[in-house]
Amino acid sequence: MLILLKGILIGLSIAAPVGPIGVLCIKRTLNQGRLFGFVSGLGAASADALYGLIAAVGFNVITELLIGQQMWIRLFGGLFLCYLGYQAMKTNTKTNDSGDVKRMDRLTAAYVTTFFLTMTNPLTILSFLGVFAGIGTSGTMTLSSFQMVIGIFIGSMIWWLFLSIVTGTVRQMLNANAMRWINRLSGIVLIVFGVVSLVKMIGDLAVIQ
């Protein structure tokens, strides 16, 4: 139980800092409702849990591949953030939920995009390697490491649920004009995050050369 609680705290500490995923979840909650914000966060939590699982089991081949290709992964992630930022600035404040199938497709897209963006930071796996080394379970899928992975997932989910609920409450107090400005601001912030990622990628490439 203690390992599970530690995992929950780690999951909360990883998810809580405001970054591109947080901005994206806030934007989607404001535009599309709490469910879209939470599902977006769920994608990030799933990616964190997957990285934790890789670190726990000790898939060195996967770890080395992800870290070795981090520049290309960061390139795609940075470009995708810029694209999402551009789309955010164009977002119409009126949402159209025409049909359950279309709504499900949009929820799936919300999950997949945040999962992909979280996976574009392969260095996260290094922090998980340190966590599992600290509890003496690195390289083996023991009960303790399994509890840690589950705890990380739960902790991350708790944060995204909290964020979507709070943001959804604020949403009820905003008018259409405020929503337009929020979309523009969130789009700019996402583009800035994307550009920073690209600059870091270029810097890493220059160091290697």
TrEMBL record:
Domain of life: Bacteria
Gene Ontology molecular function terms on file: amino acid transmembrane transporter activity
Residues that span the membrane, as ranges: 6-26, 38-59, 71-89, 110-136, 148-170, 182-203
Name of one Pfam family that matches: LysE
Protein name: Lysine transporter LysE
Main subcellular localisation: membrane
Places the protein is found: Cell membrane
Keywords: Cell membrane, Membrane, Transmembrane, Transmembrane helix
Membrane topology (UniProt): Multi-pass membrane protein
Gene Ontology annotations for the cellular component aspect, listed alphabetically: plasma membrane
UniProt keyword Disulfide bond present: no
Cited PANTHER family: ARGININE EXPORTER PROTEIN ARGO (PTHR30086), ARGININE EXPORTER PROTEIN ARGO-RELATED (PTHR30086:SF20)
Annotated source species: Paenibacillus beijingensis
Classification of source organism: Bacteria, Bacillati, Bacillota, Bacilli, Bacillales
